Each structure stands twice: as C-alpha cells, then as structure tokens.
Structure to design on (304 residues):
C-alpha cells in the first residue's frame, strides 16, 4: 500500500459486515494510522451500486485503491419472489463496480456466498473447484455478479463465505440472542453449514490488502469459513445456549425440526460444508474455531 493511494471504499456499510468493518477500524486505529488508510463507509443511500452515474461521481472524487463490496440483496427466501431486485443488486450492481474499476484503477474485494455451489454429500466439503450450480435465485444472482467481475475487472479477489455472524445487525447468532424469551426454539438438525465469523472474514480481507501478494492480479477465489467442523443449526444453537447457561443467562428449550419442512418453498442444498484450506495456504492465516469465536462474542456481549 503506497502512501498516495490508501483510500478504501466500503459499500453496504450499514449491513452486518459493513458495521463489523467499522468496529475493526475503531479497534485498530494505530494500524490504520500507520498504514495511512482512509476508510470511506458508504451506505445504500449514499452509494447505491445499481446507480452507475452516481457512484462514478463519488469514485472519481475518492480515487480508491480498494473497494470492498459488502452490498448485496441478502434475503435468500424472499429473493425467490423478487428475482429482478436480487439480480439488479447482486449482478448488475457488481457489473457497475467491475466496469468502473478499469477506468479508475481500483481493486475489488467482493464477498460472495456458498450458495453459488451445488450441494454436496453429507461427509464431504466443498473446495473452490467444486460444481457451480446454484439452486436459489439468490445464489444465481450472486454467481452472475461473480461472472461480471471476471469479465470486466482486472484486479479482484472473491471471498465465498457461508453463514456470516457477529454481534452486529441481523444474523443467526443475534436472532438467538434476541429471542431468548421464547419458550421453544425449533432448529434444523439434518443439514450442515460452515459458520463464518465477521472477525475471521475481516482478518482475511486485511491480510490480503496489507500483504500485497498479488492475489488481485491473479483474480483469486477463496472459500472463507471458521475452523472447526461444519454444523447443523440445531448443534450450533445448542452450543450457543450451553455457553449462555455458563454465563447464567436463562435459555429456552431447543427442539429439532426437519430441513425439508422448514424449506418447503425453496430448493436449497441440505449439505454445504466449505473447505477453507486454500486461503490458509495462500495467506498463512488460521481462522479461529467457531466455538472459540462464539465464546468470545458472548463474553463481550454479557460482560458487565
Ligand atoms: N449473512 C450471511 O449469512 C451471508 C452468507 C453468505 C454470504 N454473504 C454475503 O456477505 C456479504 C455481506 O453480508 P451481510 O450479512 O453484511 O449482509 P447485510 O447485513 O444484508 O448487508 C448488506 C447491505 O447492503 C445494502 N444494500 C442493498 N442494496 C444495495 C444497493 N443497491 N447499493 C448499496 N447497498 C445496498 C443493504 O441495505 P438494506 O438493508 O437497506 O437493503 C445492507 O446494508 C453479502 O455480499 C452477502 O451476500 C452473507
């Protein structure tokens, strides 16, 4: 990162990952100062990625070296009925960012999803060469966005993440924490995913940016998830509740529910465990284990 060009645009800055990036900046002010990084946190109102004319005006002023694209239409179930909207943001919006990157010479870190892949057998994990065959509109729109990046952007890294959680905004962990007064929790037991903490994802993003090891030129694609076994929503919740009990928090009763019953209206793969070996090899980073990360986040939330 040279001293002249150190500006980073973050799109979708009011979302879960955008907010987590704001906390990262706040908690790493020394590093930010030392590396002379200037963050530009831009939300949907200020920087609507579907509006190419407007975003070009802003990009022209900021002259970013990097753009981290967290902006997306993320409601997987509703996307089934809002195909046009999902594609306009997750596909056409990304096309705008990609096309402008050539003119204004910035590099893109784009966040994608495990839902671009086809499902896999229960006992296996998906690596980056696995079959790209999304079954949901959301997955199809995100894959289409990836294709535009490959077509129009010379310098990008795509990070395919799964089941993103943090203490910010809407996500599975916060859903549990804000519903502890329910008497019963119904959670799917016969499906598997790989949880990804925003902290692990953000560490990866900044190692990639600060190491300057040419991953952008090579247009690399990586799976990102926490270390540890993949897990069902039931087991993940069971672990969270067990840790809450240790912190003397009252927890509801946990009941098993069926994947197919819950996903009646959507054709979603049952098993989508990610293999994160490639990123570990390329940047020598060991993501935290999800159990350690959950423990850590609960301590932060419930410390008095
Ligand atoms: N959350 C997960 O479990 C998960 C899993 C796999 C991949 N991902 C990917 O990870 C990334 C970050 O996810 P997240 O959890 O931070 O999602 P999020 O909380 O839904 O944040 C996305 C942000 O993008 C904004 N946005 C929507 N349309 C926009 C537009 N046209 N222009 C600019 N901003 C727009 C949203 O604003 P509004 O809310 O006002 O619409 C929201 O603030 C996304 O690319 C997502 O696809 C997430």
């Amino acid at each position: 990162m040279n001293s002249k060009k150190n500006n980073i645009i973050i799109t979708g800055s009011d979302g879960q990952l955008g907010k987590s990036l704001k906390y990262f900046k706040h908690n790493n002010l020394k590093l930010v100062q030392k590396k002379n990084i200037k963050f530009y946190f831009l939300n949907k109102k200020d920087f609507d990625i579907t509006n190419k004319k407007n975003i070009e005006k802003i990009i022209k002023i900021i002259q970013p070296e990097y753009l981290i694209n967290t902006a997306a239409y993320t409601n997987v179930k509703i996307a089934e009925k809002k195909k046009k909207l999902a594609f306009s943001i997750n596909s056409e919006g990304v096309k705008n960012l990609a096309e402008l990157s050539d003119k204004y010479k910035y590099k893109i870190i784009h966040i994608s999803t495990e839902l671009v892949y086809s499902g896999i057998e229960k006992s296996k994990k998906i690596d980056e060469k696995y079959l790209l065959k999304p079954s949901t509109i959301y997955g199809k729109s995100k894959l289409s966005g990836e294709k535009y990046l490959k077509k129009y952007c010379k310098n990008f890294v795509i990070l395919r993440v799964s089941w993103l959680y943090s203490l910010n905004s809407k996500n599975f962990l916060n859903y549990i924490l804000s519903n502890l007064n329910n008497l019963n929790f119904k959670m799917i037991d016969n499906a598997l995913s790989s949880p990804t903490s925003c902290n692990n994802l953000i560490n990866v993003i900044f190692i990639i940016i600060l190491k300057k090891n040419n991953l952008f030129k090579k247009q690399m694609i990586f799976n990102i998830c926490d270390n540890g076994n993949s897990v069902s929503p039931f087991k993940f919740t069971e672990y969270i509740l067990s840790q809450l009990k240790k912190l003397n928090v009252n927890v509801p009763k946990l009941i098993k529910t069926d994947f197919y019953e819950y996903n009646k209206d959507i054709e979603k793969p049952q098993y989508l465990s990610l293999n994160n070996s490639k990123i570990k090899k390329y940047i020598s980073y060991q993501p935290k284990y999800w159990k350690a990360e959950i423990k850590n986040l609960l301590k932060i939330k419930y410390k008095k």
Summary: The longest strand covers residues 107-113. Residues 11-12, 14-17, 44, 47-50, 70-74, 89, 93, 111, 113, 161-164, 169, 171 surround NAP (CB under 6 Å). The first helix runs from residue 16 to 27. The mean pLDDT is 95.
